[in-house]
Amino acid sequence: MPDAHQTTAAAATTPPDSVADAHLAQLHKMSTTAGVTNLDYVAVNHTAIVAALLGIASALAFFGWLLLLIPVVGIVFAIIAIRQIKDSSGTQTGKGLAITGLVLCLLLGGGVIIKEGAAIAAKQGDEHKIADTISQVGQFVHDGKYPEAYALFTDEFHQNVTPQQFASTWKMVQSGPPVGLGKIQALEWNGVSPVFETEAGAPIAITKAKLKSERAQDERFDIVLRRVGNRWLVTRFQFFPEKKRTKPADDYNI
Predict the structure, then answer these.
(1) Cα angle at 197 between 128 and 133, to 5 degrees?
(2) How many other CB atoms sit within 10 Å of the CB of residue 149?
(3) What's the pTM value of the predicted model, to 2 decimals?
(4) Mean pLDDT of the chain
(5) Is 51 exposed, middle or buried (0-12, 13-18, 19+ CB in 10 A)?
(6) Rounded to an integer, what distance in angstroms lies between the CA atom of residue 48 and that of residue 105?
(7) Cα–Cα dist 235/121, whole Å
(8) Would you tell me how many other CB atoms lie within 10 Å of the CB of residue 174?
(9) For labeling, which of 35, 40, 171, 235 is most exposed (least CB within 10 Å)?
(10) What mean pLDDT is predicted for residues 141-167?
């Protein structure tokens, strides 16, 4: 028959039911989460993969405004992916892919916006200079300051039209009926965006000038300006037809 000391020791070493239940719960928790930290069992978030691919594809946005939709969608996917990964309690990975996609979308998409914004600002600046040049020509002609107006035309124009021809043409335009239009009141750009091209290695702008005179309030005339340095000068104007270029003798079959 065991003595009292042995019985007490056995009772002390026997865990109560609550302690045993706690041990079983811990074992169950470990069995259900086993392998979570093992990369072989962690799923890569699919949305993060899509975000990374859209980030790379954002480079296409440089080819057209409509393609800016790619980085916009990529940013949305990246944000969703980061939230999904955060809420997955470690069962999903791919945060690096999502962040990479987000950065690419922001950089490439933002670069396109900055580039296009700069181009629009430059175009508007050119249009203001073109309008100023045309307006100055009209003001000088109105004031009879033909040399000053002539100076707003390019060297190419000067090779075809002499100062005397320039002044006499404007005087004829401002003469009375039936030939002239009467005293010129204003010469202005018509406000329609010019067609910008390159000719002989220099930018040119093809547009129309709107003339107001005593007999004509809204006459439109073709005008071409060339950018010379930081200025836009008139290189062709409808009142002064271009001289036809003669073909060199070598071009003819004799």
Answers:
(1) 30
(2) 23
(3) 0.66
(4) 84
(5) buried
(6) 13
(7) 24
(8) 18
(9) 40
(10) 95
Give the number of other Cβ atoms within 10 Å of residue 110's Cβ: 13
DSSP string, 185-211: EEEEE-SSPPEEEEETTEEEEEEEEEE
Burial 229-247 (b: 16+ CB within 10 A, else e): eeebbbbbbeebeeeeeee
d(CA 238, CA 214): 19
pLDDT over 60 at 33, yes or no: no
Q: Which two tokens stand for residue 54?
A: 């859209």
Count of residues in the chain: 254
Q: Is the peptide bond before 163 cis (omega within 30 degrees of 0)?
A: no
How large is the angle between the packed helices 69-86 and 46-57, nearest 10 degrees? 150
pLDDT for residue 153 = 97
Question: How many angstroms separate the CA atoms of 98 and 49, rounded?
Answer: 7
